[in-house]
Amino acid sequence: MTIDTDASDITLDLHALGETAESEIASLPAAINIRDVSVYYGHFRAVKDVSVDIPRQRITAFIGPSGCGKSTLLRSINRMNDLIPSARVEGEILYHGENLYASYVDPVEVRRRIGMVFQKPNPFPKSIYDNVAFGPRVLGYKGNMDELVEASLRRAAIWDEVKDKLKQSGLALSGGQQQRLCIARAIATEPDLILMDEPASALDPRSTLQIEELMAELKQNYTIIIVTHNMQQAARASDYTVFLTMDDDRAGYVVERDVTMNIFTRPKNRLTEDYVSGRFG
Amino acid sequence: MAAVPSGATGAVERSLAGSGRDWRGLVFQVLLLGALLLTLVVLITLLVDQFTRGLPVFVDRGTDFLTSGLSSNPEKAGVGQGIVGTLLTGVLVALLCFPLGILTALYLEEYAPDNRLTRLITINIRNLAGVPSIVYGLLGLTVFVAVFASLGFPNSGRNIMAGALTLTALILPIVIITSAEAIRAVPQSLREGGYGVGASRWQVTSRLVLPAARPGILTGTILALARALGETAPLLLAGAILGTFSTSGSLNDLLTGPYTVLPMTVYDWSRKPQEEFRQLTSAAIIVLLVITLFFNALAIFLRNRYQKQW
Fold first, then answer.
1. Chain B: residue whose CA lies nearest to A171
2. Where are the domains of chain A?
3. Which site among A96, B102, B105, B293 is 20 to 30 Å from A255 CA-CA?
4. Are A215 and A52 in contact (CB under 8 A)?
5. Which of A82, A120, A122 should we substitute to test contact with B (largest number of B Cβ atoms within 10 Å)?
6. Looking at the domain that runs over A10-276, which CATH code has it been given?
7. Interface contact flag, A124 B199, Cβ < 8 Å
8. Using one digit for the tens of pLDDT, what is the confidence trace for A9-38?
9. What is the pTM of this model?
């Protein structure tokens, strides 16, 4: 199985993938290898022994009931958990074969390469232009900033709506526009991976659809990991799905991971089946 | 449409009408209004009293009162020295207090680990904010004045720098607390957004957190400064006397010579036996009120100017 970046017919592509076995996913080039990762908050273990490979230039969805640690797992990929003093990560997260938790790794550099979009749109209280230019500026970008801002806004499918008001505050935009602005902001630093933590949960259905369409566009150039509560969204928008749930000790673990089609149509595990059919969670 | 039985309408009407006037609610409302009026009456009495006595001075002498120096002759005495002293003190306190207070607040909120030591320090800063100002005056006398004296400064070290340092110590805890609260009010999502695009802690702090906290910090620090400029007790101890500022025009003489501030002028004049000084005292109080009001207005203006929502 080779990566088909020309995803002219995503549905067909998915059907084709649906026929593949789980082992086929492993043969795809991985953007991230999560190896035996456990995340602790103080003494509490929030995520235990997760090993997952994230395929490159695909959309991978983390789904599972509330509190199963999917956001925690996502945030450990760009070392966002470092901001929480009590948080601790065990195991390895490999990025191009390099362990992101090796002692020599600078978390700031990690976040430059692995961008993030948050649950609640959080544009800076600055102009639309400055929101996008913020990342490149702090990283010392020397090229043409106007071009970079325009390119990022175009990729985030918001350029046409904001091109005449780049000097206006990013907070004056609607919720859906703010979230696309945040995606433009994440793209502007040219990461190759984008983490999205329930990016559409605060948005109306139309804006949600726009975000999902945008993700389908973006996966041609980026690897995307999305955490979502919305199973329809996972089914519609993702290529691969990782289902997590929590154990009796409230620690989240991976139950099943597969091509999205398989997770939703023929799950192997009873827990997965119960969850995707809405019987629990 | 079918007619509704009249009995049913009557019941609905009665229940909608409620049980007449809410007397307890009314009494409470009157009580609240009374509390407000009592406060206002005290304030207005004070203002009317001072203005009726003080205003004639401005009418008779005009700007002469604002520019004249201290004098034992009520015909010649003015608040010029006091205004210079108060404004110079304000500048010195602002220069010392703002950077020190804001940097401390940033450290406590953004950099310091959340452990027992940090919490102990925070609690103690809060306690310091409640220490009576006269205690800071003692600090000024035994530390700042003594240090300047031992360094061989003229006037036994009783200069405006010792006074400004004393007032800085007095309002520093307030500046730190209000700044820390403004910084804490900056939503975590803003910081996460900054870290998310690869900004370092210094960049997040300087480019996102500090600008977002600016309105709150400015308001708090300026109000604290206004309070410092109205203080008399600590400066009584820290050497503000009714000395006259040097007129040599040299900054060095200004900073190391004798000094006074407006509240000191008010205090001194109020103790003088001549009836004319009663009027002068009121006039000086009006000037002091105008200066304080100016700072409060400035604080409100800056807060509105930089108001940002998130």
1. B310
2. 10-276
3. A96
4. no
5. A122
6. 3.40.50.300
7. no
8. 444 444 444 445 555 565 678 889 999 999
9. 0.81
